[in-house]
Amino acid sequence: ANSQANYIKKVSFSKDITFIGRYTLSYMNKLEKITVDPENANYYSPEGSNCLIERANENDTNILIAIGNGYIPEGVEVLRNYALCDNYRLTSVTIPRSVKQMGEKTPRQDVGYNESPIRLPSLTEIHVQWTTKEELPEWLADKFILNANKITLYVPCGTKSIYQNAAPWNTCKAIVDGTGKCGSNLTWSICDSVLTISGTGTMTNWSNSASVP
Fold this sequence. Notes:
By secondary structure, the chain is mainly beta. Helix content is 2%, strand content 28%.
């Protein structure tokens, strides 16, 4: 399917699929919807998330396999190698606090151990939610974030120093503490559980929570 990847808008997985390998949704820059048969015991795609997740089974972890937009739902614990890979449409990605491991070394992923989970050529923003050094996920990949020198890392209020001293996050172009853009002339900040919107003009009109950067 990769030869036609740039034309694909929807991907559906049937109930009897037992293993989905790396590069599954690579280069699908127009992908709008991922669906998995609800009877599939191994994989699922939460409504509105546009991502593919391996269910927690024998390893008791939910593993992100692939993503079609920049939203990773809470509950994902591992980003598989190649999970965020070669999608030229994605400029921003949000990684939830539930993620504990970046990269995966298992018999089912027997090659490519050194590849980064984050290989998005057009990425300019990464939003993370860990608030302590102990919470930062284990980075198993030998290779770090692709084009990190072009990426701004947005971190929770009061945690900038944690990321400045932790690889690979400290390889990003800039680390911004608890703020971001929500319009051409608007910014948001979150500190002590208080969201503040500042600036002038119109806010970005997101269609749903899955689109929030």
